[in-house]
Design a protein that fits this description.
The complex is a heterodimer. In chain A, 71% of the residues lie in helices and 3% in strands. The longest helix of chain A has 35 residues. In chain A, 28% of the residues are buried. Chain A folds into two domains: 61 residues, no CATH class; 233 residues, MetI-like fold (Orthogonal Bundle), CATH 1.10.3720.10. The N terminus of chain A is likely disordered. Chain A is mostly helical. The two termini of chain A are 42 Å apart. In chain A, strands 1-2 form a two-stranded antiparallel sheet. In chain B, 41% of the residues lie in helices and 15% in strands. In chain B, the strands form two sheets. In chain B, strands 1, 2, 3, 6, 7, 8, 9, 10 and 11 form a nine-stranded mixed sheet that branches. In chain B, β4 and β5 form a beta hairpin. The chains are: A mainly alpha, B alpha/beta. The interface between A and B is large, with 35 and 36 residues. Chain B: This is Carbohydrate ABC transporter substrate-binding protein (CUT1 family). Chain B: Keywords: Signal. Chain A: InterPro entries: ABC_transporter_permease, MetI-like, MetI-like_sf.
Amino acid sequence: MATLTTTPDSDRAPVEARSVPDPSFWTTRRRDVLTGYLFVAPQLAGVLVFVLIPVGLAIWYSLNKWNVFTGKQVFVGADHYAALASDPQLPSVLLATVVFSGGVVVLNITLGLLIAVLLNRQFRGATFFRTLFFSPVVVSVVAWTLVWGFLLQDNGGINGLLHAIGVDGPNWLQHGDTAMLSVIVSQVVRSVGVNMVLFLAALQGVPSELYEAARIDGAGSRSIFARITLPLISPTVLLTAIITVVGALQSFAQIAVLTGGGPELSTTVLVYYVFQQAFEFNDIGYGSTLALMLLSFVMVLTLLQWQLRRKWVFHEQ
Amino acid sequence: MITARKVLGALALTTAAALTAACGASDTGAEGAKATDVKLRMTVWTSNEDQLKLFNAIGDAYRADHPEVSSITFESLPFADYNTTLTTQIAGGNAPDLAWMGDLSKDLIASDALVGLTDKLKATEGWQYDDLVDSATKEFSRDGKLYAYPFSNSPFALYVNTDLLAKAGQKIDPKTLTWDQVAAAGAAVHSKTGKAGFVIRDFDYKSWNTLATVWTGFGGSAWSADGKTCTFDSPEMQRAFTFLHDAAFKTSAMPGPGTKADFFAGDAAFTIAQVSRASLLTGSFKFGLYPLPAGPSGKHAVLGQAGVGVLAASKHPDQATDFVAYLTNPANAAKLAQFFPPPRKSLLTGAKLAENNKKLSAAQLQEVVVDQLPNAVTLPNHTSPAEIAQKGKTALDALWKSDADIPAVLKSVCTAIQPILAK
């Protein structure tokens, strides 16, 4: 109480603070507000500089025709948005995006969960295998993809192995179907370790008493997995789904290094198409329009998953 | 309260410091515009230490006579991303003063993004503008005005691994060599040694413009002389692509898609590459170097070029143009000739080129460089080169299958690129 009487501006009780006029500008409330803003300021500055301003600029660029060599910009309104409808390559690009993202998401989550379940047991070498599956995550994506590029050559390592067992392997990167399969597998093998670690952490958080009770009640392994494990790790499944979908839609280096979007347009996904239009063809306006379309896809998908969580995520409020 | 005051005080100080720094920067910028502190920057795609050393030496010599130029920086950018990086620098308001350029030159010239050089070069005492070879300046000119000095003019030539040919019992006569003979010898080498026949270097079933080294001999071209009409579907191009398709899928004279073979590592009997690639020869096998083989339309020569120009967005265009005139004067052009085949008639003799070339003889250089340059055509070059290259490649991908319908695919190439040509 002595503090209250001797230090007028240390008004810890809001009522007292309002009733006693503070001679100082810095009331506790103002200090708290300022402290709060200072704490979030670095993050806000990052979002402002690296997200909001670029998005705002992208919207502006999408409304302009920009000659990058002279710096001249001509306002064209919605022309670039109208061009989306008449772009003959866009349907193939969107199809490749759906196939690539769908393939990566399904394979990555399924494989990540499978590996996590297999490694969530106590056996000799479990740590080694966990490290082994996670190690590609820390490898440079370009270096990783270059190595895969050599392996997938017609006379490369994978076909060499297949030949050794009497199988005539396809020319992986020269046919649309196998090229897409190659980039999906390359991407999944590199990134599955992240999902594996997340699933492992979730699996180790499932109370063992529930398994014991289920076994006493006569439940089999499949039933336990479907009725206990999966519901209890469903928040992690949601998290990995969101991360993997967003990651798949942003995959660029694998495509750029491994296939360059080919053969034909079979592996030209949207993010690579954005790069081509904006930085190779120097059509910043149309590239920005495509980038905004990609952003809207990511936002809608994330929002959809977030809304669907109520239906299939266990113990979500 | 004290903490909050300290924080605010720190913020105010930081803001004041930032403002002061900004004002300081502004002042510096104003001084930078003065003729006493000119900083020139030139983007290049080479990272060769000897070449950069030569450029720096020429830059230092220029600065010695021009004290107003405080620095000349040669910024080495990776070749694969050179055009993208240069364009991004220009778009971002950070254009270099001078730049090397290859297939981007047409776009830069068409956009008035380059400073005309002709008047300055002609007015420079001793520069000898008439010494330039017409075929070398054509690609970098518009309406009779030169916009980039073609410092490198490297013709494509046929490299032959004579050890591999001998191993496969093959003989060729360079004087009368045709594409069909190269394909036949290549197929024989492949079947007898397992090594590749002929390789179009850097093509890799992607960079189709390098195939001009073949189709020119068949009388073909990618588009009309005015660049407005696609001619990929012409009978000459059908014949050229049928030749290439047969080589890849019927006779195996050329490695198929997805198969790597490096001539300079001894993996192929022939390769088509620029003369400047001779630096990759290691001496691990005996080789021959000849002009391109004749096609159905006779002998032909194809040239790969690089130029150096001044960006209109440069802060010091006059000083940069003056430096180009110095960099490319007869004396410095002779120094540059040790790395890059020059565009000057006075320097174009086999003996002069051989003075600084450790790999090739005077006779070879005379035959594959000097004799080829006057009538050489350049690789296909057009405005929007990246878009044409990508759309053409996407359409041409369908050709690299054993059962491809060649006329239909070539027609689809025209469908893909004609709208860009017609712009």
